[in-house]
Amino acid sequence: MKTTVTTLLKMKASGEKISMLTCYDYTMARLMDEAKIECLLVGDSLGQVVLGYETPLSVTLDDMIHHAKAVVRGAKQAFVVVDMPFMTYQVNAEQALVNAGRLIQETGAQAVKLEGGEKVAPQIAAIVSAGIPVVAHIGLTPQSVHQLGGYKVQGKTQAAAQQLLDDARAVEAAGACAVVLECVPAALAAKVSERLSVPTIGIGAGAGCDGQVLVWQDMLGMFKDFQPKFVKQFAQVGDTMQEAFARFRQEVREGSFPEAVHSFTIDEDVLSRLY
Ligand code: KIV
Asked: Which residue ranges does the chain devote to CATH 3.20.20.60?
């Protein structure tokens, strides 16, 4: 059965934790879907882990649409959320609604995600009023990395913690169906999760959130440029892949690949008539 907004709300109510992973292509979507991951996030982390940019700021709406279409084709059960990239919703509610509409209509995804709290509440309300579920994202918001002065834990002072709670309440009141909390002290994230009726999905926000999200290249040990403290490597697939690439090269060089079982045959007769 397809995971929906209602499923996520029921999971929060019953205390069943939600798992979300980033996903950017069809093959991974199939694997994650078959592993029963409830939510696939076509994150704008695409910029760093797939496209090789330093930040997500260069990612475009067309990039997101291209990758989200592939993910949707592979997600039979999972709820697919697509990030709204930088400058596709910040201008005003009208801009946000038009671009959220494109993401949903052109990809077949179920929800959009955007960064920010109180300041983007009008955008969230406009998108939700068109019938499009919105996942909010507060705490460390990578699209504001230059303003935040780097990838740092958020909400540590009295004022910042209160602002985080106010932002969470504002996005919920605007109609967000879930809230991503990124790089927030665990006890603060637990308090925010208790106060909200919609699920919180944490990344670097401790075990008190209603669900957890990780970037798949991080949790499989594939992305070596940068390793945040909150990442757990559930497998070292990067090393396994590198070993396989090296073995492939070695076998090609020495001529032991391909073998007869990997090759196609032809009648000797056909060959002998060639001139
Ligand atoms: O873009 C992304 O991958 C994200 C997650 C880190 C939550 O927003």
From this structure: 5-235
Which residue's alpha carbon is nearest to atom 2 within ligand 1? 43
Burial of 148 per CB tally in 10 Å (0-12, 13-18, 19+) = middle
E strand intervals along 166-236: 178-182, 200-203, 211-214
Q: Residue 61 corresponds to which tokens in the numbers above?
A: 């709406």
Of 3.40.50.720, 3.20.20.60, 3.40.50.150, 2.40.10.340, the CATH number of 5-235 is 3.20.20.60
3-state percent helix, strand, coil for the chain, nearest multiple of 5: 50, 15, 40
Specify the residue with its C-alpha closest to ligand 1, atom 1.
43
- pLDDT of 131 above 90: yes
Mean pLDDT, the chain, integer: 97
Query: What does the chain come to in residues?
Result: 275
pLDDT of the residue at 219: 96
Nearest atom in ligand 1 to the alpha carbon of residue 213 is 7
Nearest Cα neighbor of 171 from 198, 144, 147 is 198
Residue 20 has a pLDDT of: 98
Residues recognised as catalytic: 182
Assess contact for 127 and 95: CB atoms under 8 A: no
Distance, CA 31 to ligand 1 centroid (Å)? Answer: 19
Q: Can you spell out the DSSP letters for 231-271? A: ---S--HHHHHHHHHHHHHHHHHHT-SS-GGGS----HHHH
